Amino acid sequence: MKDLIKIIVVLALVFASTFLVANLTRLLSIEQIKSWLQMAHQLSPLYVGSVVILLLFCDLFIAVPTLTITILSGYFLGFPLGAITAITGMTLAGFAGYALSRKYGDSVFKFLIKDTDRRAEAVSTFESYGFAMILMSRAVPIFPEVSACLAGMTKMKFSRFLGAWLLSSVPYASIASYAGSVSSIDNPMPAIYAAISLSAVLWIAWFIYSRYQKMETVNH
């Protein structure tokens, strides 16, 4: 487990560094994203959808405020189109993270964990806990991308990864985009409630799962 945590921390730091760079340069600030979507909305819903998908796909390379973008997708496109658009962007990011890590992740894996037996143990650990990690990854910023890369790096079966990713992303995107669709400038409370509720539910689920795993470890 220690080696798997080591990989998670390194990947998380890499993604976090992109978030810091984006914030320092103001390249992908919430204000900037809103401005792009407002300009796109004046042209066509197709442009709004394209911007949302591109932003959520870019989340794999530069950490972006996923929840905010998803809520804005619902606000500008309505429901269910906003949800479908957000799910598409999230899914493309997940697939790309999985595919790139499956193809090129071995060199990173071997660099971080040089011992063959320890690498095998890390793979085995992810096989045991990976599905649940991906399922609840939306509780923590950056962690969805980390889990997608881990799935590819450890050669997780694609159908298993896909199932966990969709089970995580579809409800998340649907709830957030619906809240955005029923919100307005004068009444932003549905979006605010949705953001708070989603974060709280996911954190509680993650806490319960962590406690359960600790109990399992003690019992064994």
Mean pLDDT metric: 86
Radius of gyration: 18 Å
Count of folded domains: 1
Q: Order of helices and strands, N to C? A: HHHHHHHHH
- Counting H and I runs of at least 4 residues, what is the number of helices? 9
Give the overall shape.
globular
Percent strand equals under 5%
Helix content: over 70%
Which residue ranges are poorly predicted, with pLDDT under 50 across at least 5 consecutive positions? none
Count every beta strand, where a strand is a DSSP E run of 2 or more residues: 0
Sheet of most strands: none
Structural category: mainly alpha
Task: Characterise the protein shown here.
Belongs to the TVP38/TMEM64 family. It is a multi-pass membrane protein. This is TVP38/TMEM64 family membrane protein. The protein is mostly helical. The chain has one domain (2-214). Helices cover 83% and strands 0% of the residues. The chain has 9 helices and no strands. It has helices at 2-25, 30-43, 45-58, 66-77, 81-112, 116-135, 143-153, 158-181, 189-219. Helix 3 (45-58) packs antiparallel against helix 4 and helix 3 runs parallel beside helix 5 (81-112). The longest helix is centred in the middle third of the chain and has 32 residues, at 81-112. The radius of gyration is 18 Å and the shape is globular. The mean pLDDT is 86.
